[in-house]
UniProtKB/TrEMBL annotation:
<protein>
    <recommendedName>
        <fullName>Asl1-like glycosyl hydrolase catalytic domain-containing protein</fullName>
    </recommendedName>
</protein>
<dbReference type="GO" id="GO:0071966">
    <property type="term" value="P:fungal-type cell wall polysaccharide metabolic process"/>
</dbReference>
<dbReference type="InterPro" id="IPR053183">
    <property type="entry name" value="ASL1"/>
</dbReference>
<dbReference type="Pfam" id="PF11790">
    <property type="entry name" value="Glyco_hydro_cc"/>
</dbReference>
<dbReference type="InterPro" id="IPR017853">
    <property type="entry name" value="GH"/>
</dbReference>
<dbReference type="InterPro" id="IPR024655">
    <property type="entry name" value="Asl1_glyco_hydro_catalytic"/>
</dbReference>
<feature type="domain" description="Asl1-like glycosyl hydrolase catalytic">
    <location>
        <begin position="6"/>
        <end position="175"/>
    </location>
</feature>
<dbReference type="GO" id="GO:0009277">
    <property type="term" value="C:fungal-type cell wall"/>
</dbReference>
Length: 178
């Protein structure tokens, strides 16, 4: 970390999708312990929360998902003295769910009061035309929401922002121009 700080490190992201079994798959308590051990020492950089997903299905008290997991993390962090400067979320859905995405972001902001949100992964499934329409709907909204500090479309690949390995798709062009 000292090498990275010497090179101008300004931000650190927490764990990737600890609420998902096929990603970090961590309990809230384990994530808080690890956050304190590995990230809390960096008081001179902004530290993000673990990035939770938008999949809230199946959330229970004993197995929290998504925003329930984030709320539990922030609550225990507050009790244990974690440093969290911004909250990180991911959203995945279909091109017909633009309103659901924006609603999720508002709920995420409510779960993380007083802190900005970083939407570090978002993507919608559908045809190229449908994805372009989705993007043109949500990007101006993301830009207008004062609590959204950063956002990034998930993955640059052929069929996802790229038409070919060296050519942007039509919606990739629009995304790159913003």
């Amino acid at each position: 970390m000292n090498v990275l700080r010497a090179r101008g490190l300004k931000y650190i992201l927490g764990f990737n999708e600890p609420d998902h079994a096929d990603q970090a798959d961590m309990t809230v308590a384990r994530a808080v312990d690890s956050h304190i051990k590995y990230l809390n020492q960096d008081s001179d950089v902004a530290i993000g929360s673990p990035a939770v997903t938008s999949n809230e299905a199946g959330s229970t008290r004993d197995n929290p998902k998504s925003l329930d997991w984030l709320r539990g993390f922030l609550e225990l962090c507050g009790q244990r003295g974690c440093k969290v400067d911004f909250c990180v979320v991911h959203w995945y859905g279909s091109t017909t769910q633009a309103d659901a995405m924006i609603s999720f972001l508002h709920r995420a902001h409510d779960a993380c009061p007083g802190k900005p949100l970083w939407l570090t992964e978002f993507s919608a499934t559908g045809s190229s035309d449908e994805v372009e329409i989705f993007m043109m709907k949500v990007l101006p909204i993301l830009d207008s929401l004062q609590f959204i500090q950063r956002y990034a479309w998930f993955m640059t690949a052929v069929g996802n922002l790229l038409q070919s390995p060296d050519t942007l798709s039509s919606y990739g062009e629009k995304y790159a121009s913003l």
